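During the reporting period the student researcher (J.K.) took over the structure-prediction task from the postdoctoral fellow and processed the backlog of single-chain submissions. One of the processed entries is reproduced below for the supervisory committee.
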Amino acid sequence: MSDLSYMDKLLDGVEVEWMALGKALVRTKGTNITAGRMKELHKDHAPLKIFAGGKTVAFVDFKDIPEENINREPSIIVKSRGVVEFEYYTDPFSHKNEMWSYHSKNNNINIKYVYYYLKTKELYFQGLASRMQMPQIATPDTDKFQIPIPPLSIQAEIVQILDSFTELTTELTAELTAELIARRQQYAHYRDQLLTFKEGEVEWKALNKVCSSISAGGDLPKNFIKGQTDPTDELPYPIFANATGDKGLYGFTDKYKIESDAVTISARGAKVGYHTVREGKFTPIIRLITLVPNKNIILTRYLNYILDMTPIAGTKGGIPQLTVPTVKKIAIPVPPLAEQARIVAILDKFDALTTSLTEGLPREIALRQQQYEYYRELLLSFPKAEVADHD
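J.K. obtained the following structure tokens:
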């Protein structure tokens, strides 16, 4: 077997022409429209898509945009400010006038092939953009950029291969997402069954009757490092703030206020009522309420699970807030410790499975994306022409 690359085998000695993008394709301008005007004109399911920077789009009627600014050709849209990237679009569209787009009038150039090639060069253009105070590129940066033009049949084969990879990646993502949703629904079903008690079956108690303490977080310790992600010998105890999940970790300090495992509840803002188990010795700060369970009455993890089934509402109007007196009055069902332990063991297993899927899904998708990009690079790695440069 020859050690030629896949591209060499595909080309089989065919010469590749290099052309400046601006000569190979037709560049079109956008329309003079502001983000505010886009928002005013937007109608769900309207036929004309207007692109702005990033993920910002609007759908408008054809009459809302001058006809000369509407592009009806399959095109490559250049997002030229902020995060510089390319997008392929086939339906009628327009975009803000600081952006531009390209389409093909050349029967020997497949516009989607060019799009796939440019996607492999996004880092190059992002590097150009980073030289500016506001990251951006100009039309000469793309117009003068050299692109390889193999025979049309080769372009079509590359597009077909990459379209298939894109479709497979999309299908896999959909399957993994559906599995995750199904597992979450299954988990919620069993949790609801386990934590729903018939009237008179268990005793209901206010949280202040089952907790050793319920307290609001205090001021920041004097000795701490904000953003520290791991403990040190000098600063071993975590500081937790009003945020969800791992984002609640604010830093570390040399003293602690809470001595044992506890449940913290966010007490202010959009995430008010969010609760989680915090292990070991730690210090909660302002806008965080800490519940330390009385282990002779209630298990820490049972308390956290039962709070999933318990309405925890902040104040109405303004910024939602939750107070210690309000939390103390919340009543929950409290079965015997043995039954709590049984419930916790079952829910921990479901929680571990759901967490594994939640964490594994982005990793699996990222791996598939890396595989896709590897084959895309392989397919589009053409021999460099001596005349080709990116100046």
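The committee noted the following: Residues 22 and 154 are 21 Å apart (CA to CA).
J.K. will present the remaining backlog at the next meeting.
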